[in-house]
Amino acid sequence: QHSLFSxxxxxxxxxxxxxxxxxxxxGPGYYAIIKFYSAGDASRAQRTCNGQRLFQKxxxxxxxxxxxxxxxxxxIALNSNKCRELANHYFGFNGWxxxxxxxxxxxxxxxxxxxxxxxxxxxxxxxxxxxEVTLPNHGVCTRGVALGEADxxxxxxxxxxxxxxxxxxxxAVGKALSSAFQKILLVVLENGKVxxxxxxxxxxxxDSLTEEDLKGLVQV
Length: 220
Known about the structure:
Elements: H1 2-8, E1 14-21, E2 30-36, H2 39-49, H3 80-91, E3 97-105, E4 123-135, E5 140-152, H4 158-181, E6 184-188, E7 194-198, H5 211-215
Antiparallel strand pairs: 1-2, 3-4, 4-5, 6-7
């Protein structure tokens, strides 16, 4: 897996690398599924590596998968770690920035009431986060708002309470960052240059709010 990553990552950032054993009817050996972010990078990797002895004695057969079983039209958002990875690759560590506009505890705002005699040890913790992502060299600025939620089994335990708080805050920030990046369209040209566009179809009602409004926002 490490050898595959080393070879194919030279053509562009990789989303994932997975190695599997061949089916029993196919004989001993392995096959790998390598996912690129860019179809252009995948195509160049296939043309260059197919039939070559990359890190093994026998030539490697490389083909592009054009049909996926159970494929759906719904686009799945990249998680925050993948968003950071892509941003660092195409814009550089200093070519983009993010900041938290607000991160607030909204636990208990859903109107739920505890029944009489019910234990209060288990409770739900919720944090609402608004994040702003800026690409100064491209003049693009986007926002994302998201809710992080988790249950605390024993809210009377200080250590568990602090641990859960940090976990929920991190989850809310990550989801908000991912939401902000969904409004950014990257166009990677053959010469390696990157064009950036703001995807207005992904706009939310919160995008038109001022920072003061966002800081006072309570959404569950």
